[in-house]
Amino acid sequence: MGEVVIRQAVPGDYDRIVGVVDDWWGRPMTGGLSRLFLDHFFASSLVAESENRLAGFLVGILSPSQLSVAYIHYVAVDPEFRSSGLGRELYTRFFDLARSDGRTVAQAITSPMNHRSIAFHSAMGFTVSEPFHDHDGPWHHARPLQSGALTCSDFVDDHRH
Fold first, then answer.
1. Distances in Å between the alpha carbon of 108 and those of 49, 61, 111, 159?
2. If we measure between CA atoms, which residue out of 87, 73, 65 comes closest to residue 41?
3. How many angstroms separate the CA atoms of 92 and 147, rounded?
4. What pLDDT does residue 145 have?
5. Exposure pattern of 72-84 as b/e (b: 16+ CB <10 Å)?
6. How far is Cα 68 from Cα 139, in angstroms, rounded to an integer?
7. Are 33 and 17 in contact (CB under 8 A)?
8. Dihedral angle at the C-alpha atoms of 55, 84, 146, 113, nearest 10 degrees?
9. What are the chain's domains?
10. Is residue 81 a contact partner of residue 89, using CB atoms and an 8 Å limit?
11. What is the model's pTM?
């Protein structure tokens, strides 16, 4: 593993991302990651690369409807880069971007059975809610996740390496 560089995503990153996301997640996930996310929200999304290889990504949205909210739609890290702090760094960079736009909270959702995601978000300071049944229609349950205040510099300092 070489040095990891994190940069703003561009629409052209889409094909690389969907080319690995199912393998990285270990199940089909591309259905929820339409090209429109990088076409319209690339400025709030991040790509991590090492030696011209995709190491991770975060697709984020600065909500146009809830002006205090920054939403993390998808995040994934190459299994070879897991436990390196890359996921935490992607979130930290997204929090910085969100704060610079006046956002005060970050939100995400995860499957009630995704214990790794729940543990990661808890470690990042997110509050994990009880499962929300039929969140995206019948049998599509989710656990809403919400960060602490993004305006608090202590929050970010406590979670950096």
1. 23, 10, 11, 18
2. 73
3. 12
4. 59
5. bbbbbbbeebeeb
6. 30
7. yes
8. 80
9. 4-158 (3.40.630.30)
10. no
11. 0.85
The DSSP line for the chain is: ---EEEEE--GGGHHHHHTTHHHHHTS--GGG--THHHHHSGGG-EEEEETTEEEEEEEEEE-SSSTTEEEEEEEEE-GGGTTTTHHHHHHHHHHHHHHHTT--EEEEEE-TT-HHHHHHHHHTTPEEPPPBTTBTBTT--BEEEE-S-TT-HHHHHHT--
Could you tell me the mean pLDDT of each successive run of 10 residues in the chain, 161 residues long? Answer: 94 97 89 92 98 97 96 95 95 96 92 85 84 56 63 36 31
